[in-house]
Amino acid sequence: MKIALAQQNYHIGNFEENTRKIIAGIHQAKAAGADLVVFTELCVCGYPPRDFLEFDDFIAQSYAAIDRIREETDTIGVIIGAPDRNPVREGKDLFNGAWLLYEKEIKGVAHKTCLPNYDVFDEYRYFEPAYEWKVIPFKGKKIALVICEDSWNLGDNPLYRVCPMDQLIRQHPDLMINISASPFDYDHDEDRKEVVRQNVLKYHLPMYYCNAVGSQTEIVFDGGSVVYDANGNLIHEMKYFEEDFAVVPLPHPVPPLYEELLPGLSVRTDVDEEDNDGPAVPLQKMGSSTAVAPSVFDKDMRVSKQNDPDRVLEYLTDERNIGQIRKALVLGIRDYFSKMGFKMAIVASSGGIDSAVTLALACEALGKENVRAVLLPSAYSTSHSVSDAEQLSRNLGNPYDIIPIREVYDALMHTLEPVFKDSPFGLAEENLQSRARGNLVMGIANKFGYIMLNTSNKSELATGYGTLYGDMAGGLSVLGDVYKGQVYALARDINSNGEIIPHNILEKAPSAELRPGQKDSDSLPEYDILDKVLYQYIERRQGPAAIAAMGIEKAMVARILRLVNTSEYKRNQFCPIIRVSCKAFGVGRRVPIVGKYLS
Amino acid sequence: MKIALAQQNYHIGNFEENTRKIIAGIHQAKAAGADLVVFTELCVCGYPPRDFLEFDDFIAQSYAAIDRIREETDTIGVIIGAPDRNPVREGKDLFNGAWLLYEKEIKGVAHKTCLPNYDVFDEYRYFEPAYEWKVIPFKGKKIALVICEDSWNLGDNPLYRVCPMDQLIRQHPDLMINISASPFDYDHDEDRKEVVRQNVLKYHLPMYYCNAVGSQTEIVFDGGSVVYDANGNLIHEMKYFEEDFAVVPLPHPVPPLYEELLPGLSVRTDVDEEDNDGPAVPLQKMGSSTAVAPSVFDKDMRVSKQNDPDRVLEYLTDERNIGQIRKALVLGIRDYFSKMGFKMAIVASSGGIDSAVTLALACEALGKENVRAVLLPSAYSTSHSVSDAEQLSRNLGNPYDIIPIREVYDALMHTLEPVFKDSPFGLAEENLQSRARGNLVMGIANKFGYIMLNTSNKSELATGYGTLYGDMAGGLSVLGDVYKGQVYALARDINSNGEIIPHNILEKAPSAELRPGQKDSDSLPEYDILDKVLYQYIERRQGPAAIAAMGIEKAMVARILRLVNTSEYKRNQFCPIIRVSCKAFGVGRRVPIVGKYLS
Predict the structure, then answer these.
(1) Staple A227 to which of A236, A394, A573, B437, CB 3.0 to 4.6 Å?
(2) Which residues pair with B375 in a beta bridge?
(3) Residue B285: per-residue pLDDT
(4) Which residues touch A507 (CB under 8 Å, ≥6 apart)?
(5) CA-CA distance, B79 to B66, in Å (whole number)?
(6) Contacts of B503 (CB under 8 A, 6+ apart)
(7) Is B412 an 8 Å CB contact of chain A?
(8) B12 contact residues in A (CB cutoff 8 A)
(9) Confidence of residue A258 (pLDDT cuts 50, 70, 90)
(10) Span A5-30, mean pLDDT?
(11) Which of A21, A41, A72, A513 is catalytic?
């Protein structure tokens, strides 16, 4: 049996375009002589469809698209992902379904059991978990068909009380197929392949794992679909960060081990009394978008670096992570623009490292001719700010303008004089400059149809070091999930084949240049310390005592956590951030604005 | 047995203050001779704690607070809500717990079964649903202790597959106690009492229902705790929108009906085959924050108005709804300021209806001396704009300034001349004016420590009729969940004891005044039609065909839905909106930004 995997990039709610792509994939698979072609989770409507799923009309359109696709399945089996109405009175309205279509008929629909409902995921908001499991017969083989998270319930720290493959294995399937929409993060990329391999080793079955690719607002799906044989050998791996297609023959079967396996299954239908006497399990159980339990996977090196405050910066900026982050950000920018129907970006270019890296990545994603830089010097800008930013755009070859903000700032100050009177220069005046810049850039954006890219980094966003409607303006944040230290590493990566970002930009001390001689370090801890603490607090959810125990001064920890917790209201008004870590600000981190915790 | 209900207003994560309040409530109950005092859901940490629950440190602080409260329970039973660690390996880390403390011991913890995970709720993100149910003995009585949504699984359209009271009734409890954090919306207020009554009638037991009060960023809890006797009589009802306390003796028992009840229970542990042959259930199953199934409750009048496009405006603006909305908005403003530690608000006062109502509500919430109005006339402002806004502030007695934007606008235009050249006046120039206003108001806010209140209404936000960083700026949206027609009704309510909002403001045609003679109706459909369509689409999630079938022109429906779906990126950067409807923009409505559905 020949099985094709179609790793495609979908557009949420764009049934016409998604259906066209799926049908093109079917034709390609037919032409290659495949018996079966596998697409990805919720490919018909795009993933994540979020609250569109609550509209009957949206579901009806999805069903109509399935009907169109079904017409193409005369001679080939097709596995697609789409919501399935729940016919039973009790429970949520929908299941997250994997549909096998063949001979123009629906041969079976498997429902997702393990519904991720953490970080960026909200699947239990919409879907009823499966409570029945049936292998689906196809051309003499029995397929154990599961969806994404369904394969992640391994290890000694499971998020769910049911493991669907433990149910399906009792029906003696011949192979496992998993359709996924599993997003990228640099903490996570190794885990996915390892999870597939662990499933294969546990169940002694080959596994076809087809993952989505493409960016959906903030979430980047990186593809990397794989096929493993029943012995745990990787027999095919698909491209990362781009669409791909392959036909992989079903590997030679190994002797079935079902009976031997059965006694070892850890299916939990009720709770033993003794469990309740056990010690409390630490928080942060792990699902497919976070790391899996370290005891399952051999990634001790990475885990030890993440835990070791002296090595965490080394981990955050290591070459492999940075290379992947760069690819994710470029795809994130490109898909945001193409799917929103935009072509041109505008960036406020300050001569600092953040705007330089943003500009370079934007040029990489959209083409230099589609990225306009605006230099907005003020009375407090140093002379090198303008010359460095000019040099950067000359290196990149993108158009730029120099628009001094002095006249606007003076008009603001003059207009406010009757109210401000002779109060001393302070934060309000700094913010006025930043907002004057935001206003000017948005003016050009609105006039000519640019989308403003935001240049704030994760360290600034975490601490609230930014001006709402000023430097926090923009339609998409490129670096909002990238710590300051990682921004430098990205700059070095961008310069690895010759200087694009001028040396001077990499060398100078970071400054907002909103008052004479200002440095970020006047208001913030040094970025080395800051990034270490932020990583432990945000990504690893450590509390103040645990972070201080890593050797960072207690008062410093308290100060940083207070900054994070009192600036939630600013982040709440921030644009979408391309997510590259296991915990980005935005939709995956939901913290009360009005609250008083560590603040 | 005398049972006290303590309906209190908590601060999320403020363990010290919440513990102090709870202990004060215990002392009050002791002084009143109560045997038992009942607090509300997650009262120890505040509701909703959101991702704070993912921090071990936060959970540890909650446990420490319970220990302090326990010390006060020597002679009185105390029921509080707090997260409970899940000791079992499988499943989520926490349960949502109702704790019975007595004699300085933990006598029992009941876990929530039905975890709301729709609209503003994310409980399955954190909590494992209960799968064991035990009545808790206390002074010779058996208490069936449940949490909020647990009592909502009635009707013929249940969201959940398990009903915890159907389990608990088998253990022959003597009374039901429900601790809740059930938010207000004007579509919903009648349902809550009716649900309690339906439970009482179903199980033939008295019920004590204690609900939280107070606003948490966008969610307003309205209190209204109740006690019903076993015959379905309301024997006590507590205040709405404020804290309250009462001691209610346990009503005389009625003859138990447990055995008769048992055969009728609808506990579902598996699925019958025939269910799968049934017709598809329409979407929008209902939980505690949306309406419950109409067949359960006699609210035909309301439902028919909601469905009837000719009567929906009447429903949206009816006096009872508007009176409640006003109370909710005032509480929402007041709690936002007090819990954030702010005192003073600033409002851009345009002479239009939205800013007038916002200003009046702010004065009601914070005191007129704490609310500053800023009038920001431009060249396109009509003369009455300033005079109407001045009259409004004279009526309210709040301070105001007049700050013309001309100089700033001219400076912006002059600065941009080399880029704009001689392009015609358009949207970019309109936005520049709006952002100049935003910049000036934020300047004053930053200088003197005001929080800017946003004045956009729900009709504008829905259609994207607003300028990011301009009139969409602000820290809290007062009217973002109030349709334009409802804003007028609020104005009339505010004027019901004499003119506060000048007559002229109520009479003139809405205009953004960003170009000569501009009217909202140049860009938008008439508000009467707009509000009707928006309500059907947003609150009732009807698709284009269903809305057109209500007698609204198809092209008009398509145009409005396109406006809604293409302006998601704007709302994504908007401040928190005080939620008064069953579907507000913000945390309760999660729609992809990059997508293509009805757009």
Answers:
(1) A236
(2) B402
(3) 63
(4) none
(5) 11
(6) none
(7) yes
(8) 592, 594-597
(9) confident
(10) 98
(11) A41
Contact between chains at B88 and A276 (C-beta distance less than 8 A): yes
pTM exceeds 0.90: yes
**Beta strand B213-216 pairing with B207-211:** unpaired
Question: Helix (H, G, I), strand (E, B), or coil: what is residue A306?
Answer: helix
Residue B207, min C-alpha distance to chain A (Å): 25
- Write out chain B residues lying below 8 Å of A59, CB-based: 283
d(CA A395, CA A210): 40
Structure tokens that stand for B270 in this block: 């598996």
Q: Is B369 a catalytic residue?
A: no
Active-site hit among A21, A43, A112, A460: A112
Residue A348 has which token pair?
């406020």
pLDDT of residue A303: 57
Chain A residues touching residue B90 (CB < 8 angstroms): 158, 160-161, 268
Residue B70's CB: how many other CB atoms inside 10 A?
18
Of B405, B475, B590, the CB nearest to A50: B590
**Secondary structure of B53-105 in HEC code, one letter for each residue:** HHCHHHHHHHHHHHHHHHCCCCCCEEEEEEEEECCCCCCCCEEEEEEEEECCE
Catalytic residue among A45, A114, A148, A210: A148
Residue A395, CB-side half-sphere exposure with 13 Å CA sphere = 21
Is A104 an active-site residue? no
Closest CA to A597 of A549, A537, A532, A554: A537
Smallest CA–CA separation between B497 and chain A, in Å? 34
Provide the residue type at B141 as one letter. K
* Nearest Cα residue in chain A from B438: A469
Distance CA B403, CA B476 (A): 22
Chain A residue with Cα closest to B450 = A428
Q: How much of chain A is helix, strand and coil, in % rounded to 5?
A: 40, 15, 40
pLDDT of residue A308: 75
Cβ atoms within 10 Å of A277's Cβ, excluding its own: 8
Whether A17 and chain B come into contact, CB under 8 Å, resolves to yes
Torsion of CA B42, B45, B46, B50, to 10 degrees: -90
Q: What is the pLDDT of residues A444-473, one digit of tens each?
A: 999 999 999 999 999 999 999 999 999 999
Task: Point out the residue among B49, B89, B595 whose CB comes nearest to the CB of A12.
Answer: B595
Q: Kindly write down the DSSP assignment for every residue of B454-517, as one continuous string.
A: E---HHHHHHT-S-TTTTT--SEESSTTS-HHHHHHHHHHHGGGS-SS-HHHHHSPP---SSTT
**Distance (Å, rounded) from C-alpha B152 to C-alpha B195?**
7
Give the CA-trace dihedral at B125, B127, B132, B137, to 10 degrees: -140
The answer, yes or no, to whether residue B26 has pLDDT greater than 60, is yes
Those of residues 63-82 in A touching chain B at CB distance below 8 A are: none
pLDDT in tens, A369-419: 999 999 999 988 888 899 999 999 999 999 999 999 999 999 999 999 999
Residue A541, chain B, CB below 8 Å: the answer is yes
Strands (E), B87-218: 94-102, 105-111, 136-138, 141-147, 175-180, 207-211, 213-216
Write phi, then psi, for A116 (nearest 5 degrees).
Answer: -65, 130
Q: Which residues of A432-463 are buried (b: 16+ CB within 10 A; e: fewer)?
A: bbbbbbbbbbbbbbbbeebbbbbbbbbbbbbb
Task: Give per-residue pLDDT as tens, A124-173.
Answer: 999 999 999 999 999 999 999 999 999 998 866 789 999 999 999 999 99
Q: Residue B76 has which token pair?
A: 């009185």
- ipTM more than 0.90? yes
B132/A160 CB distance under 8 A? no
| A551 part of contact set with chain B, CB < 8 Å | no
